[in-house]
Amino acid sequence: MTSMNKVFADLPVTVFEAMSQAARDNNAINLGQGFPDDPGPEDIRRAAAEATVNGYNQYPSMMGIPELRQAIAAHYARWHKLVLDPMTEVMVTSGGTEALTASILAVVEPGDEVVVFQPVYDSYLPIIRQAGGIPRLLRLEPPGWRLTEEMLASVFNSKTKAVLFNNPLNPAAIVYPREDLELLALFCQKFDTIAICDEVWEHVIFDGREHIPLITIPGMRERTIKVGSAGKIFSLTGWKVGFVCAAPPLLRVAAKVHQFLTFTTAPNLQAAVAYGLGKPDQFFYDMRKDLARSRDRLTKGLESIGFPVLKSQGTYFLTVDLSPLGLNETDVEFCRRIVSDYKVAAIPVSAFYEQDAVTSVVRFCFSKKDETLDTALERLSDAVHGRRKR
Questions:
Q1: β-strand 194-198 against 224-229: which pairing, if any?
Q2: Residue 386, class by beta-carbon neighbours within 10 Å (0-12 exposed, 13-18 middle, 19+ buried)?
Q3: pLDDT tens-digit profile of 206-257?
Q4: Domains of the chain and CATH, by start
Q5: CA-closest candidate to residue 41, choices 197, 203, 227
Q6: Which residues form the Aminotransferase class I/classII large domain (predicted)?
Q7: How far, in Å, are 82, 188, 212, 274 from residue 219 at the CA level?
Q8: Apex CA 91: angle with CA 16 and CA 98, to 5°?
Q9: pLDDT digits over 40-79, tens only?
């Protein structure tokens, strides 16, 4: 048989699917994969239902329905003072992953170098390689996961076509401060590099923190592609409605890729997302408050049974650094043990590294109901001491 495309044929099953399958096999609570066990905002779901019954259900515009593109532009103007032309600088995609894929394929050509920060979301590297790009991997480390000038100087050069930057950072749950963004912007401008910014967690931030889009940093407006996700903003992860925002020369090419990926996105969901983006600011603050309460519940519970928790600044996740516990096992071994012995699934953060992995950090998802978190904590009460549940 003719050999298949090695970029994809040689990929393992994703850690998210592997741990979710382990959760199913062991009848375990799944705190691994990042989705809420809540149906999502009822009024937004009803808006989608109304649009399905009474709205347009044929092919919408490839770029997205005008109503949603205008809502995206208005939303970012309100929250970030980012002025976008909805007709030439905004595109709707079928999820954030498709938005990222279209953006990478629009920018990267064979031989181009692309700076990527580890821990790295699993779709980035295969798509870069499919485009013929060469990933240049940088290692972020706990507890701060911060960027440094020395780090950036070690990889940026005249061949650096793009940088992929995830902020807020999954899985580390960090919201980057302005000084890190300005440092990255400095290197992008010095080496004429395009920034592809995965900002799908932009609204899921806590403790009064501010998400600063890289596109708003001086000098970055014309060289940044900003990616967002309605699924993350509204806790409707199955809807798969993504946003691409960029200056016209960048967006035009991303749109040409998008037309051959999914071409368009369900119009009823687009209409509902447009409605959701127009909701009052308090809706978004209340969402953050509710998630922060769940974060704090899981954090306090884990700390009470001896887990060293790294504070979550954003996303649905918090991380635990196992290194002080002296368990004599890696994060992968720990996750296998707790899903089989304690019936709780988590994600080893080493799975987000291709080389030189951090092997002591585990990610838990807290966007769950109180009873789900409490049951998981009860099951994990002996795990920190290595004792098997009887």
A1: parallel
A2: middle
A3: 999 999 999 999 999 999 999 999 999 999 999 999 999 999 999 999 999 9
A4: 15-40+282-380 (3.90.1150.10), 58-280 (3.40.640.10)
A5: 203
A6: 28-380
A7: 13, 9, 14, 29
A8: 20
A9: 999 999 999 999 999 999 999 999 999 999 999 999 999 9
